[in-house]
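Researcher: Go.
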Amino acid sequence: MTLGIDIGGTNVSLGIVQKGTIQESFSAPSFPPEATMEQTLETLSGYISRIITPEILKIGIGVPSVVDIKEGVVYDTQNIPSWKEVPLKAYLEDRFHVPVAVNNDANCYALGIYAHYPVTSLPELLVAITLGTGVGMGIVEEGRLFCGANCGAGELGTLPFRDSVLEDYCGRHFFDAAGRDSREASRAARAGDPDALALFDELGRNLGVLMSTVLFAYDPSHIAFGGGIANNYPLFRPAMERYLQEHFPYRKVLERLKIDIFTDNNIPVIGAALL
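Model: Structure:
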């Protein structure tokens, strides 16, 4: 059995995973922004101690950060100000005496999504896109993560777009800038509110730009959307597909592309356990 951990800005989720299934799990608040690195590591260790058992053979952790995968060192973690350079692997291995693997949280999400596909129809090349506060992206090619030299492959949400970057127009920041909460906008759009529907139409066009970039960069067989905003796929799908049909030049690529939606909250923890 493996202990999978997903460290987010709001919560830390932990789960004991066996054969791709969570046997036991719990979620706890993430670290206060004023906490020191030592305090955060002590808190994390306390969370692990609550769930770890002698049967756990490995710990896998996903963090919203650049990671030295070999050494397990975490750099400049989003939403945890004190995590500028954290030897997370060494610290936890010394504390709990089991092997520890550390990777970017979007990569863990991609692994977790890949594990949800039937063995008979596994993607040749999967790009998993998480639509949350921002945009995360992970790439799995024939069952193996493609991380790049610095665990930064797939960060296409940071490409320049309009007056900012793509992820500001494809995640919750897009709704914030419009003065609306994403969940409220979703409810209003489903009720037929024209302004909310127009907002999701614009979101779909923005995601069409992101999708085009993904297709040019990686030529995936499958693209999977996850994260909270992916629940609104029916609302933004028409505009996204319309953008692709009008602006992406390779029709055969679009015909062959498979787009899937995964919104299971356990996916990041399962993916971390698979590291």
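Model: The mean pLDDT is 95.
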